[in-house]
């Protein structure tokens, strides 16, 4: 099949030549034969017309013997058979045979035609001479009297042999033409198929990765244009490939040089790319091609990858591996359905954080007892001393001692809460009742500040599973803040539920938290207005505690400021 184009073009040409010859040859032979017969018919007719006068005068004088000898002499001389027939069909004279021995010619086709139309011709096999002959017959007339019919005839074997000669010559010429045509077709087909074969060969080379191949053709035609385009295309591919491989190398060196562990997991869970740091972290040098669960047998990591596959987004979580802590970030790449994982070693930061927390907890613990003692002694002094000036200073000491005790208590509570979900003591909690009970604590405060408290419970609120004491802490802090930072107006507490989540909103008409502070108010010790917070006995730890407790319950807390209206805290908890 290698030369299929060549074969197709060549055999196509061959077929066309054969068909043309097969059609034209029989037609042209027949046309030539007809032309010859027509020419002979005309000359025989002319002969008959020429002889008419002579023969009619011999017949008029009834000189039949003279007529016969004249006809025989003439026939021999001009090599044409001549026959004279009377109107009844009897042969009167013939150049070949004795007339008396010849049968009646009245029924001969050419004779019938000549009598009827004045001229008759026929091409047929002669029974008397046993050959194919051309007959021409005309009536012999003189002065309006018809004396008989003059018939001249010729053997067609001469025409046939002439035509056969002609046929042979034409066939020879045709054969030469066919050979020339076929050589031309062969060269043309080869010229056409050769560059195509070259292009095919070059394409196979390109497919095998050889972009240096070029197709060099001569001339200016469409195939040359195709070859030029092909060469341009391979040049472009070559350039693109080298650019791509450069970029790939660059990317590979970047990936391998970064300190973070990096790997790419495909949709089957197989690691397709990993860098050196990742291999070092998992202590495995050949992770490529392995499934991630073979390489990292950590439930938390497995859960993280499954969550990313399910949610098709980005998730960051901490994982513990070989006594080290890593910040693991997994990002879903939609176009290739892959997950890019980075592992950042945060062990040092974690240790530092722990040291800091331990320090705060230890200091708080150490301070707690002396502070309680100081508070006790200050109260005793206050109760036993009547001096007004002393009372004033003792009050200041007492206020500051109370503040420090609150800070210490809050810090201890925070360190207890931080990151420990097992610190929850879960029970069935009816939030309507829980909040209603808390409100009693604030009755005095509300009265003092002349504030209205509106409570909108939700009668269909489902019971949730939570730590009731910690939730009390949450709502005490939030309602306390709402009252603390509201000078006039109201505090509205509303409960509702939707899609397996309960929502508790605490809205006040107090001072608005400026927008730029909203994102930071849940940080430890973050206060918007330090002097106001201190004056109101704040520690800056209340919202931090709230956030931790809500997160331990897998809930969320949001805050909205409504300029000119107040602040709105929204706690959402799962049922
Ligand atoms: P604090 O003990 O100082 O109240 P929190 O952590 O409870 O500390 O609150 C942090 C800061 O957030 C407060 O100092 C206050 O500026 C602001 N804040 C909290 N609740 C409200 C509120 N309802 N209205 C206005 N500001 C508030």
From TrEMBL:
Question: Which terms are listed as keywords in the entry?
Answer: ATP-binding, Cell membrane, Kinase, Membrane, Nucleotide-binding, Phosphoprotein, Transferase, Transmembrane, Transmembrane helix, Two-component regulatory system
Q: What class of enzyme is it?
A: transferase
According to UniProt, the name of this protein is histidine kinase
| Coiled-coil boundaries | none
The record's PANTHER family line, in alphabetical order, gives:
SENSOR HISTIDINE KINASE CPXA (PTHR45528)
In Pfam terms, one family for this protein is sCache_like
Boundaries of every Histidine kinase domain copy: 362-575
Q: What is its EC number?
A: 2.7.13.3
